[in-house]
Amino acid sequence: MKLHELMIRHGHSMFRWRSYIPLFFIGPLLLAFRESAHIEAMVGDAAEDVWVLFCFILSLSGLALRAFTVGFVPAGTSGRNAKEQRAEVLNTTGMYSIVRNPLYLANFIIILGVLLSVKVWWLAALASLVFFVYMERIILTEESFLLGKFGKAYSDWCEKTPVILPNFKLWKPSTMKFSMKTVLRREYPGLLGIGTAFFVTEMIQDLVYEGEAFREWIAEDYIWPITYGLIIATCLSLRHLKKNTDLLKVEGR
User: Fold this and answer.
1) Are 95 and 47 a contacting pair, CB within 8 Å?
2) Contact 146, 87 (CB under 8 A)
3) For the chain, what percentages of helix, strand and coil (3-state, to nearest 5) are there?
4) Residue 33 neighbours by CB under 8 Å, 6+ apart
5) Bridge partner list, 172
6) CB contact at 8 A, 116 and 55
7) H or E stretch including 213?
8) φ/ψ (deg, to 5) at 172
9) Lowest mean pLDDT among 16-25, 35-44, 48-57
10) Among 85, 130, 192, 222, which residue's Cβ finds the most Cβ atoms within 10 Å?
């Protein structure tokens, strides 16, 4: 089997099991937490709080990029399907006019923000390497599928559009209006994921590796429980609206 074909075959498996890939980082993450506690002791709580806030905003900017992308796309594309490749429409406008994989770029920014908050350089470097090796195979698999489905139209778009680093000179406005309802219906799991990642990371570092008492942690870092609680309430409300009402439904999306 040719290397290109083997990579595509691996990509099919990775695509199906992509939600479980983060589990392989549990070991390195636990090692990084120990090192992070020493770094925080050296830089102080104030500097650490500023850094974590920056990382949280970075992850939210990745979610904003996802929202900006998803808000303009029609139904049948840019979804969260995990079992098989799906595409009814080829996106070539909006974010897809300047980069072929804006959602993967957004996902990387989200993950990078979480990992940088741990303050251990090798963890972010390791995750970045694994992410790009993994995404290379996923993208090859998707490109093989899309080329077979859309043919020359897809090939012509690939020739001028970068894979992962945007070329803003190529920008073309989307042919559809931005739909906030579509964003709220589809992207709240990402907000919940970011909130959970930062809350759990902060709690483990402070309670387990720095030895803070739970009451002391709640008193000093109350902003994280409050923020996480608001995120959970927001996401549960959006999930209820999605499952039980038509308020977030948009025709053609």
Assistant:
1) no
2) yes
3) 75, 0, 25
4) 118, 204, 205, 208, 209
5) 94
6) yes
7) none
8) -130, 130
9) 16-25
10) 192
CA distance 137 to 4: 9
* 80 band by pLDDT with thresholds 50, 70 and 90: low
By the 8 A CB rule, do 141 and 125 touch?
Answer: no
Q: What is the DSSP letter of 207?
A: I
pLDDT in tens, 124-145: 999 898 888 888 888 888 888 8
From CA 222, how far away is CA 19, in angstroms rounded?
Answer: 30
In eight-state DSSP terms, residue 175 is S
- Contacts for 142-151: CB closer than 8 Å, 24+ residues apart: 142/11, 142/15, 142/85, 144/8, 145/85, 145/87, 146/85, 146/87, 146/90, 149/87, 150/87, 150/90
